[in-house]
Amino acid sequence: MRGNVAKKLQEPKSASSPASRSYRIEEQVGYLLRRAHQRASAIFQVGIGDPNITPTQYSSMVKLNEYTELSQNLLGRLVGMDKATMQGVVRRLKERGLVDSRPDPGDARRTLLSLTTEGQRLVNKLLINGPAVSRETMKPLTAQEQRQLLELLSKIV
Amino acid sequence: MRGNVAKKLQEPKSASSPASRSYRIEEQVGYLLRRAHQRASAIFQVGIGDPNITPTQYSSMVKLNEYTELSQNLLGRLVGMDKATMQGVVRRLKERGLVDSRPDPGDARRTLLSLTTEGQRLVNKLLINGPAVSRETMKPLTAQEQRQLLELLSKIV
DNA sequence: CCCATATCGTTCGTGTACGCACGATGGCCA
DNA sequence: TGGCCATCGTGCGTACACGAACGATATGGG
């Protein structure tokens, strides 16, 4: 296709306003984070080993694998998801028989979540591919840059 | 509230499998990118000056402000959005009278997009807040770390 | 000139993401 | 002990995000 994007483009208006000392959207953190997150998700999807498992579902299962049993709200805090978002993620995992729930005997407001045997089996299979997904995502970086990126991201989360 | 998350937590199963040399989800790029993107979006929403404008809508308007007129597909490529996603973003911007469209006289498949006067007025107002939003997002970092982060993110996008 | 192939925009389905409001429950303090 | 306030999970509305399928249009090679 040789699609040359710049082909029939007019020049950017540029030097538009005097105050804007070159504000380029491509250089803003928020923009770059969105793009980087998109790419990471795409790599995850092909590399994790099950096209039906999403990054958030994976995070949730990994945490449930660590803690055995967690309330829905606490799980959400541990993986950084809104309770409304968590609700949807958990519902889909339950529909697929990967997660089970029971009322918390000590607090009737809570639902305790845990992996089913099937869920445990799956997450242990996916965990094998986890490191490779992370490696692939950071492939363009040197080892030192990879450590830097992780450190910097940790600071702004 | 003093909500101590670790209160009634069982110990993580830890040291579970011999092969897993401490794979922590919190240290994976994909996970950190998701969290960082969430935080950046939240900061954008309160800082950009109009709670009804989303980051993607903003990016689109900024690009249209630079180029005056673009096809929907090309705009999508410039701001890193799928054509299906672009369709929804553009539809909402049109519904609010911020963007106009006309058929491309030279290619009947294309739709040419441009900002309305109202859209131009708005984006120029929002652009004033853009730098502050980026600053706030990277506040936890030193000036040097901020430059590093932008550089590293550029490489993995 | 015609047809295979590509591009453009739309639609549908699924899945995050989150604010808000709601009802039920729990904890604490007057 | 009774009432106030916080927490828990759910439901609703809106907005990205993207694969897949679709019809209309463009283009280039035979």
What is the name of the CATH superfamily of chain A? Winged helix-like DNA-binding domain superfamily/Winged helix DNA-binding domain
Please give the CATH architecture of chain A: Orthogonal Bundle
Biggest interface, which chains? A-B, 66 and 66 residues
Order of helices and strands of chain A: HHEHHEEHH
The strand count of chain A comes to 3
User: How many independent structural domains of chain A?
Assistant: 1
Helix content of chain A: 55-70%
Euclidean distance between termini CA atoms of chain A? 40 Å
Please, what is the average pLDDT of chain A?
89
Q: What report would you give on this structure?
A:
- Two copies of one chain form a homodimer.
- Chain A is mainly alpha-helical and 157 residues long.
- Chain A has a single domain, classed as Winged helix-like DNA-binding domain superfamily/Winged helix DNA-binding domain (Arc Repressor Mutant, subunit A).
- Chain A is 56% helix and 8% strand.
- The first copy, chain A, is built from six helices and three strands; from the N terminus they run ααβααββαα.
- Chain A has a three-stranded antiparallel β-sheet with strand order 1-3-2.
- In chain A, a hairpin with a 7-residue loop joins strand 2 and strand 3 (111-115).
- In chain A, helix 2 (55-67) packs across helix 5 and helix 3 (72-79) crosses helix 4 (83-95).
- The radius of gyration of chain A is 21 Å and the shape is globular.
- Mean pLDDT of chain A is 89; it is low at 1-8.
- At the A-B interface, helix 1, helix 2, helix 3, helix 5 and helix 6 of A face helix 1, helix 2, helix 3, helix 5 and helix 6 of B.
- The first copy, chain A, binds a DNA duplex (30 and 30 nucleotides) through residues 1, 3, 34, 38, 41-42, 54-57, 71-73, 81-89, 92, 104, 107-111.
